[in-house]
Amino acid sequence: MKVLLVKPYNRSDHIQPSLGLGYLAAAIRSHHKVSILDCIKEGVSIDKLPGALKRFDPDVVGFQCYTFDLPFLRRALDAAKSFRKDVVTVAGGPHPTALPEETLKKEENLDFLFAGEAEEGFPLFLDALEKGSGDFSSIPGLAYREGAAVRVNASIVTADLDRLGSPAWDLIQPQTYPEAQHGAFFRQFPIAPIMVTRGCPYPCTFCAGSLVSGKKIRRRSVENVLSELQMLKNDFGIKEFHIVDDNFTMDAAYVKEFLRKLKSLSLGMSWAVPNGVRMDTLDDEMLKLMKDTGLYMISLGIESGSDKVLSSMKKGITTARISEYVNRIAKAGIDMAGFFILGFPGETEETMRQTIDFSLKLPLKRANYFTYLPFPGTESYEALRAGGELDDVDWERFYFTNAAYVPKALTRKRLKNIHRLAFAAFYLRPHIIFYQLMSIKSPRHFFFLARRFFRWVVAN
Questions:
Q1: Using an 8 Å Cβ cutoff, are 236 and 187 in contact?
Q2: Domain residues of the chain, as ranges?
Q3: Percentage of the chain lying above the pLDDT 70 cut
Q4: What residues contact residue 25 under an 8 Å CB cut-off, 6+ apart?
Q5: Full 3-state SS string of 245-305
Q6: Could you report the per-residue pLDDT of 3-56, keeping only the tens digit for each?
Q7: 93 in helix, strand or coil?
Q8: Fold of the CATH domain 2-152
């Protein structure tokens, strides 16, 4: 069968390869002809999608789907069925995983979806389609219609991540991606993201990370990861890698073994952890090994400068401890970026001011301020739904900078003004301006940063 895996078009500035689609392609390519279409990278907006479908002529179209992809997905499903009525449509990712029944019931042109990891189930699903048996009951994670009802099969996760191999890098062509991958800055180019671990055991109420990959941490072998890095360097010319795990540093012994062996290879690759790491997992030995192996930036999910808000988020940390950990990292000579959430349920202008003030006191080189999003399946989402507070959510503008949700004590306009104030307060300081200017690699990079600033801060 011909299978087209699609990363939806959206306004994101993070133009990076989809590891999820890459792993799915690797899982099915021995028996099926598969292609990957990154609509963001290729500029395939919804108006251009029919032409792309005609060019690929797939039997099955699979869509990656986050909640903010829903507007595109809905129109893309219409385009797929208009292209060919018998084309099979399937979706996977965090949103279908969180709301499988609701998603299938609302999207009439969506035939199937997968909840959770799909590397095990997707090949079985395609085999069942090819055989025409119509029996999908044994396919893990698959959701489908049975008459007026929706059936959702139990999902499974792959215990042995080495067995998955590497993503289909030859279909992705990571060296063709622009500089704007997971962040706005980089040390070397070209860049590729890699996944080392899956799973997250932490109970943060705003995060949907564990929905797809579960709470148990699973790790690839050190040798498996290093082999992929060597392949990326030798076959694709990759000079920098980004570890995009949620919990790469959870197992200190594993991380240190990986870093020691990485150091011995002398690959000359720079690296970063743009998804963030837990501050309380870092010790001085690990930090030194990180720096010695080319790590230049650690991202940290600080989230708030209010201990009350941190407690309601179930972050399991206080502002005092955050300050201690951040100072430890600074002492190791590694630059830091901080992530902060504004407009969390129950927040006031006072708590958001505390967050902004706290971010200015920390020795951070960069800061990203996101407006809170009620991701389906999270604890905070369920609490808001139970309290009837989701009626005013702007699902058509469900993005980190759009203030799609607004706490009761605020207005959307006021939240957006505070959001702009946060960026201005952090970045319009002379030493921060100088640092950013020294990090610009080219005129093209400068214009990208200017456009991103306008879209994130001015236009919203």
A1: no
A2: 2-152, 173-458
A3: 97
A4: 5, 34, 36, 167, 168, 171
A5: CCCCCCCHHHHHHHHHHHHHHCCCCEEEEEEEECHHHCCHHHHHHHHHCCEEEEEEEEECC
A6: 999 999 987 777 899 999 999 999 999 999 999 999 999 999 999 999 999 999
A7: coil
A8: Rossmann fold (3.40.50)
What local confidence, expressed as pLDDT, does residue 343 receive? 97
CA distance 405 to 412: 8
Backbone angles phi, psi at 105, to 5 degrees: -70, -35
Q: Report the distance separating Cα 19 and Cα 192, nearest Å.
A: 10
261: closest CA among 231, 289, 295?
289
Residue 459 confidence (pLDDT): 59
**CA separation (Å) from 36 to 29, 65, 86, 91, 182?**
11, 14, 20, 14, 19
Element containing residue 423 per DSSP (H, E): helix 412-427
Other Cβ atoms less than 10 A from the Cβ of 346: the count is: 14
Residue, of 185 and 353, whose pLDDT is higher: 353
Tell me the CATH number of domain 173-458, given options 3.30.479.30, 3.40.50.460, 3.30.40.10, 3.80.30.20.
Answer: 3.80.30.20
Per-residue model confidence as pLDDT tens digits over 339-396: 999 999 999 999 999 999 999 999 999 999 999 999 999 999 999 999 999 887 877 7
Q: Please give the structure tokens belonging to residue 409.
A: 């004590």
Q: How confident is the model at residue 120 (pLDDT cuts 50, 70, 90)?
A: very high
